[in-house]
Amino acid sequence: MSKNIWIDLTNSPHVLFFKGIIKALIDQGHNVTVTARDYAQTLPLLDEYQIDYIHLGNHMGKNKFKKVLGLFKRTLQLYRFSKGKSFDLALSMGSNDLAFVAFLRGIPHVTSFDYEYVFAHNINFRLATKILKPSVIPFERIKKYGAKKEKIIDFNGLKEDFYIHEYNYQEGYLVKKLGLDPSKVVITYRPPATQAHYQQNNYDISIKLLKYLSSNENCYIIVVPRTKDQIEFFNSLKLPNVIIPNEVLDGYNLINCSDIVISAGGTMNREAAALQIPVFTIYKGGIMGAVDQYLINSGKMIELKSEEDFGKIKFVKRKKDFKKDKKNQLDYIQILKQYELI
């Protein structure tokens, strides 16, 4: 039976997560409506992948008062938008705006997450119908946010395993896009999320690391800023061997064509880990989550705590694999069917 499904996207990684899911739902005969907040590369990525969407709301910056104001403003926008739409199911990755509206409209809402120390979970976990999470995150850590065991859907693996293995990778993507010398080491570098509510990271270690990396003439450092302010800041450093792309790059191909991935945030690191690419974290914001701790403990990711750790980075080319490997792929839609949500 065809369902009327509403998906709300509020950050760039959500586009990557839901891209294949949206197509699969439509292919199976469901009607899918996508709403999106203007933040980071969310809208450019939707345009890049030719996903139809309705732009509703913007990110309000790091000021706490403005964040709360933005929550109320966008929730009202979504509430008005949803009037008379008769949605059967709502899906998101921690959209608090959608959580409020789905609850008020009586729409079943499935939220998902992979980092547990976020105060805003107090909204999502209390209002959502189901909470999809990695099994390595203990229930005890999210109980304080109002989560109930009967709402929990656990999965083994990373959230990136829902989409990263299905992609058709393009060999030589970065050489064609950026004109890189294929003999040099390619490092993808993602700076701290300075506006994120869970990030207390400052630029100290990240800038020292970037200067260290840029001093190696045998490599390119592709910096992927999160905001316009970061673009201006990193351009102002004028570091050698550093590339700040003028266009939105395909995230999948960017990572798979890289020899090393370094990020202060979770999604890019976890995508690299899922593809077995050498990955390093410089995350210093609050408490490290269970997923990142699992990756470090299992040797799938290395933590750079100080300048003394920079020597752990080996500037070597790796053998690229552009074939699909679906042995670890997870099926989001099958989970929805299992719990009779579609």
UniProtKB/TrEMBL annotation:
<dbReference type="InterPro" id="IPR007152">
    <property type="entry name" value="DUF354"/>
</dbReference>
<protein>
    <recommendedName>
        <fullName>DUF354 domain-containing protein</fullName>
    </recommendedName>
</protein>
<dbReference type="Pfam" id="PF04007">
    <property type="entry name" value="DUF354"/>
</dbReference>
